[in-house]
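Suppose a colleague, Dr. K., hands you the sequence of a protein chain of 261 amino acids and asks what its three-dimensional shape might be. Before reaching for any lab equipment, you can write down a predicted structure in token form. Begin with the sequence itself:
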Amino acid sequence: MSSSRRERLGTPRYTAGMRCISCREVYEPPDAGTCRECYEEASETEEELKREIEDLKSKISFLKIWSPLDPIHHQNHRFSASSSSFTDIVLEASDDDCGAGAPSIRAHKAVLISKSPVFKAMLENEMEESRSGIIKISEVSYDALRSFVHYLYTAEVSLDEGMAFELLVLAEKYQVKHLKSFCEKFMTSKVNSENAMMSFAFAHRHNAKNLLEASLSLITDNMFEQVNRDEYKELVDENPRLVVEIYEAYLAKQTNPNAIQ
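The predicted structure, expressed as tokens, is then:
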């Protein structure tokens, strides 16, 4: 580029190189953003991080517990034919959409105890569940309970909005914090004008702070639309205290637009 054209376009003139964005040393030529030393160091760091990530993946794979609910493992595991003999606890969903004939879920006490302080207290003491070997879980579908138990083994779950709601409730009830956080992040990403009011009320019931903030922010940003929704009218009848909280947040936002982020 000629000097006259550079001046017309406002492009800076480099006479003594440019400063590296990493070490701030002046270097030549002025076209890479970083000096060669910093570029090579960054490349080495990237490769090292890749190796560490692969190492962590292999450790996770090694530490992952085989789940009796995993259909792939169930088919290929060499002990699959007698796998049920290794489980020592049964979980039953009392609110089962599949009907009374739906199968129960078999699991291992050691896994439940290690992943949930609630299960630990239940199964290590002389409670009915410990004596009978059966845990009845109310107000949950069979599919959600199955996904919940599978997560305790593998830390893996497939979510849709309905499943996220159910699993967050289970995760809170049995104090599985990582699953609750995972579901809350998913639900927060799905907050919109259609479900904001419902999400706000749900977040209040289940102490989901990030979901509460996201839904409340959307409500107060679209107050006139939201107060005309049926969900708002239901909230007025069922929990007027939350309506007061919404209006307090709305008024605070009018005074200070940065009150709710």
